[in-house]
């Protein structure tokens, strides 16, 4: 639910570093809801920064230091592998009382690195909006991206009164953008996200990779006759390779733990197919269908045909 911009802003100025899908969506949502009064932008790529300014997303800064120096909250919105170094470059230029946060898809390693930057007057609060698409860049962002989606914050457990106020302000900011906020331990976040996001992406990349190998044999038939299963299942394999490389390098333990369990379950299904154990297959599929149904009931997806997205374009002759 978005709030009318007439409500007082949560932050006077925010700095958004990295104006891709998530950064530009955050800016759009903050401006639309009035959660921030003004926005300064920075991106390592000058053409991306220029494009963000052209889209009217905020004031492009001349340097990273300039983008963060007057900000009440700085949002690091770049791939996980660049968060620690960029955070360190920001911290020295940030004003007292400011919040340094991020949107990275992995939390334990990021929280450990960012925590080293906290000092009296600089509140480090790692975060992760569980919202996204397979698209990248400032043109791909949209203001409603976070609406009805969870945002997980992994604050330090032993913060003082000022730190707790900062966590409360950041929570209200994400709520203003339409998110539901949950505070969580970083390691727990990484395990949960390994099964709900990271391993599914790995499987999507892998099935595309297997299909690509088969293409040589089937001479284009895999792509030409892409059935609903392959199409729906592989949408997320269009996601940014840099982002996902960094996710797997930084959430190694949790992903390997979940992959181990996944492989065991897959082997059981493989065995059931080999030995014609129809009852077992039926039971597993029935239970799995219930899980899918509960995702829709929880409002995290739609049962509409084609997931409520537009119909695919007419096939090429
Ligand atoms: P994106 O669309 O590729 O945007 C990332 C932007 O950050 C790019 O413009 C990139 O520039 C820039 N960048 C990279 N390193 C930088 C640095 N050191 N300083 C400043 N800018 C830098 O990616 P995204 O999807 O928004 O993802 C951003 C973060 O959000 C990631 O940490 C990701 O894990 C997290 N996240 C993503 C999703 C999702 O579904 N996409 C969902 C939730 C959270 P270049 O293009 O030049 O590298």
Describe the structure.
This protein is of the alpha/beta class. It has 2 domains: 11-184, Rossmann fold (3-Layer(aba) Sandwich), CATH 3.40.50; 188-304, 6-phosphogluconate dehydrogenase C-terminal fold (Orthogonal Bundle). The protein contains 12 helices and 9 strands. The protein has helices spanning 21-33, 46-54, 64-69, 83-91, 108-115, 161-176, 186-218, 221-224, 228-234, 241-250, 252-274, 278-297, and strands at 11-17, 36-42, 59-60, 73-76, 98-102, 122-125, 127-129, 150-153, 180-183. Strands 3-2-1-4-5-6 form a 6-stranded parallel beta sheet, sandwiched between helices. A 3-stranded mixed beta sheet has the order 7-8-9, with helices on one face. α7 packs across α11. The protein starts with 10 loop residues before the first strand and ends in a 20-residue tail after the last helix. 36% of the residues are buried. Bound molecules: NADP nicotinamide-adenine-dinucleotide phosphate (NAP). Residues 17-23, 43-45, 48, 77-80, 82, 86, 103-105, 128-129, 132-133, 136-137, 240, 243 line the site of NADP nicotinamide-adenine-dinucleotide phosphate.
Short description, anyone?
The protein is built from twelve helices and nine strands.
């Amino acid at each position: 639910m978005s709030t009318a911009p007439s409500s007082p802003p949560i932050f006077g100025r925010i700095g958004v570093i990295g104006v891709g899908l998530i950064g530009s969506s955050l800016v759009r949502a903050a401006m639309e809801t009035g959660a921030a009064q003004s926005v300064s932008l920075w991106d390592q790529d000058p053409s991306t920064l220029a494009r963000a300014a052209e889209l009217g997303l905020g004031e492009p800064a001349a340097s990273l230091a300039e983008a963060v120096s007057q900000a009440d909250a700085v949002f690091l919105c770049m791939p996980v592998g660049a968060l620690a170094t960029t955070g360190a470059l920001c911290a020295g230029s940030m004003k007292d009382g400011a919040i340094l946060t991020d949107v990275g898809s992995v939390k334990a390693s990021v929280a450990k690195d960012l925590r080293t930057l906290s000092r009296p007057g600089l509140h480090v609060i790692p975060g992760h909006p569980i919202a996204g698409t397979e698209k990248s860049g400032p043109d791909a962002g949209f203001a409603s991206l976070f609406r009805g989606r969870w945002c997980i914050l992994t604050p330090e457990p032993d913060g003082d009164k000022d730190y707790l106020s900062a966590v409360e302000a950041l929570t209200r900011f994400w709520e203003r953008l339409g998110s539901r906020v949950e505070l969580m331990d970083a390691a727990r976040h990484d395990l949960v996200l390994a099964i709900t996001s990271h391993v599914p992406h790995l499987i999507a990349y892998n099935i595309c990779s297997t299909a690509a190998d088969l293409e040589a044999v089937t001479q284009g038939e895999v792509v030409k006759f892409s059935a609903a299963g392959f199409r729906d299942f592989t949408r997320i394999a269009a996601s940014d390779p840099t982002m996902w490389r960094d996710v797997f390098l930084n959430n190694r333990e949790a992903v390997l733990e979940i992959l181990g369990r996944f492989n065991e379950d897959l082997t059981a299904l493989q065995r059931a197919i080999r030995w014609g154990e129809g009852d077992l297959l039926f039971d597993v599929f029935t239970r799995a269908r219930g899980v899918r149904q509960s995702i829709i009931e929880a409002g995290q997806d739609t049962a509409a045909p084609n997931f409520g997205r537009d119909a695919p374009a007419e096939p090429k002759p």
